[in-house]
Specification:
Strands 1-4-5-6-7 form a 5-stranded antiparallel beta sheet, with no helix packed on it. It has a domain of 125 residues: Immunoglobulin-like, CATH 2.60.40.10. Strand 29 and strand 30 form a beta hairpin. It contains 4 helices and 49 strands. The relative contact order is 0.13. Helix content is 5%, strand content 39%. By secondary structure, the chain is mainly beta.
């Protein structure tokens, strides 16, 4: 009976682990984690939720923190890891759940400056006196992680003897070590007359640019987007791609080759991409001549496809582009958000939404974006003027609702149904956001328990949580108990990361972590042994094993036939296959290894209610190796 039950249970895959490996969670840039099972509107409140720890770093954190579950850290076991990049050109890997004991120090830390040679981060004086990011510029754009290869891609900027360098690094997320061929120096040129002086080539001048936007990983290519320093010099908007496998350059796009300006900054947002492999960006202020078959596309939504290189396949430019450009009312102050099919209609199944400094929301058909019409924008799906204040960074989408936290405006929720956006908010917060507004993040358990998270500048940084179903209901903010929960500092365009019951916020000098208070200690797994022989080592498919550790279960329980896959709220899986469990206690779990599991390295994952996963490595023996071992005994 036991082998048959194991076969039945092994056909059920364990739930996928939570990762945040790219800006705003996904390539659509939805800003939503739909797999958050721990945080709910009922337990996020000032009594039960607050600051858990503050992890110091060596510079400002403009990049969104990234999160990967169950990473095998070299020599340190398996950890849930949060990754942080700073303007001091550092990348940190921290245990995402604990900052005590062996986790008091970073799991690893690398820095791309070199005191021995004098290579350092860029100062305000280095970047043409631009103070938009001060006192230094190092890593600004959010990195991207390829979970298939365990590689992080990140752009770091330095200066050595007056020469500027922007380098794309590929790092092993288990150690921080450079991958072979890493780093590569960013360089590019395109045909064009935009640099004047009678030239017919436009080069990428490193001193004019910073990588403000997040990185995009799409179909094996890493795309980096580039903007200016305070609109200084004859700059352009660039999108430059490199093959992830070997960092060889694969694509170059310049949105103003015969003019200038039109940078790709998007308030820190990353280029979006759809399932067909199309890329979407929004350009900033600059000349526009697309209406006369030109290729200079200032203040435009631009759709690109990769073939022999990057090519424009469609675009939309507002009828008032000239006025936007002259008044510095960038359309490109925020990034595009690609809506899922549920938001569309039969006529317009594939939608894109965006808004810039003007506060007008644009709803576009990605299959026919609309190009440019003089005098009005009736060719697009919808234009909603004056809907919000100036938008920086972007919106979030959840459950047929668009969330925008514009500058000098409230957090607003707009319903999207049947391919149309209702112009009147379904709800809005009581608070008005100062400064540059905020970039909302949503956590939810599929379509339930939605929470909208906001990081804003008041009181040197404040984290807010709102009920996504009714923004009048503020669940929590970090100033409700400032002695315990104050962030301590703030950076503009900050986007929170929510994963496995915790909220991670980058500040000017730390990563601040919020979560449920007064929780039991997390489980730790220390050994896997054969439950019959009590010996460590490789285990056979179908064998009984004992997993030893601490805080493994909240109760002691023993199961009878038929065995269950959940006992005392606990589940155990090996390589994603659920195991039948015989016995659980605080220091031991006895379970059966799935019969159909493949031999080789494996990971046992323990999941407790309202806790992040915990894991331990083991080896699954082949039948032949077990026979040899038996003969030796």
């Amino acid at each position: 009976m036991l082998p048959l039950l194991c076969l039945l249970l092994s056909a059920v895959a364990a739930s996928g682990q939570v990762t945040v490996t790219t800006y705003r969670n996904d390539l659509a840039r939805s800003g939503t984690n739909p797999l958050e099972t721990i945080l709910t509107p009922s337990n996020v409140n000032p009594a039960g939720f607050g600051k858990l720890m503050s992890l110091p770093v060596d510079g400002q954190v403009y990049a969104q923190p990234l999160y990967v579950s169950l990473v095998h850290i070299s020599g340190k076991g398996i950890h849930n890891v949060v990754f942080v990049a700073t303007e001091h050109d550092s990348v940190y890997a921290f245990d995402a759940d604990s900052a005590t004991g062996p986790n008091a120090a970073p799991l690893w830390h690398v820095n791309f400056t070199d005191p021995a040679t004098g290579e350092h981060t860029l100062s305000v004086s280095d970047v043409l006196g631009c103070p938009s990011i001060a006192p230094e510029i190092g890593i600004t754009g959010t990195p991207v992680i390829d979970p298939a290869t365990g590689t992080m891609y990140v752009v770091a900027s330095t200066i050595l003897n007056g020469e500027f360098f922007h380098r794309l690094h590929a790092l092993d997320i288990t150690t921080g070590a450079e991958r072979p061929g890493s780093p590569v120096t960013v360089a590019a040129s395109v045909p064009g007359t935009g640099d004047n002086f009678g030239q017919t080539t436009v080069p990428f001048h490193p001193y004019l640019y910073k990588n403000r936007a997040g990185l995009l990983l799409l179909n094996g290519i890493i795309y980096t987007a580039w903007t200016s320093h305070c609109d200084a010099g004859a700059y352009h908007g660039w999108l430059i791609g490199y093959r992830a496998a070997d960092l060889q350059q694969a694509a170059i796009y310049n949105d103003s080759p015969n003019a200038f300006q039109s940078s790709l900054w998007m308030g820190g947002a990353a280029p979006a991409a759809d399932a067909a492999g199309n890329i979407y960006v929004v350009s900033g202020n600059g000349p526009f001549d697309g209406d006369t078959d030109g290729i200079d596309l200032g203040d435009s939504f631009i759709k690109l496809a990769f073939g022999a290189g990057l090519a424009i396949t469609d675009y939309f430019t507002p009828y008032n582009q000239l006025s936007l450009n002259r008044a510095d009312i960038d359309l490109g102050s925020s990034g595009p958000l690609l809506l899922p099919g549920e938001a569309g209609s039969v006529a317009h199944p594939h939608l894109l939404v965006g808004a810039g400094k003007e506060g007008r929301i644009y709803l576009l058909d990605r299959d026919q974006m609309g190009h440019f019409h003089s005098g009005e924008d009736s060719q697009i799906v919808q234009s909603v003027p004056g809907a919000v204040g100036p938008v920086y960074g972007g919106a979030a989408y959840f459950n047929h609702t668009l969330y925008i936290a514009a500058a000098q405006d409230t957090l607003k929720a707009f319903t999207i149904a049947h391919g149309r956006l209702l112009s009147t908010p379904s709800s809005q917060s009581s608070q008005t956001w100062g400064g540059l507004g905020a970039t909302p993040t949503v956590s939810a358990n599929h379509s339930r328990n939605g929470i909208v998270w906001i990081v804003e500048q008041a009181y040197s940084g404040t984290l807010h949580a709102y009920d996504a179903a009714n923004l009048q209901n503020e669940l929590y903010n970090s100033q409700m108990n400032p002695a315990r929960d104050a962030m301590g500092s703030f950076v503009k365009f900050s986007a929170a990361t929510v994963a496995n019951g915790k909220v991670y916020v980058g500040t000017s000098n730390s990563l601040v972590v919020y979560g449920l208070l007064n929780q039991p200690p997390p489980p730790t797994l220390s050994a896997v042994i054969d439950a019959v022989t009590f010996r460590p080592g490789p285990v056979m498919p179908g064998a009984l094993v004992s997993i030893l550790g601490a805080n493994l279960a909240t109760a002691t329980a023993r199961t009878e036939m038929p065995l269950r896959e959940t006992v005392a709220g606990l589940t155990l899986s090996i390589n994603g296959i659920v195991c039948p469990v015989l016995f659980v206690s605080s220091d031991q779990i006895k379970a059966q290894v799935p019969l159909d599991i493949a031999p080789g390295p494996a990971t046992a994952v323990l999941q407790l209610p309202n806790m992040p996963p915990a894991a331990i490595a083991l080896t699954i023996a082949s039948a032949s190796s077990r026979m040899v071992a038996a003969r030796l005994q």
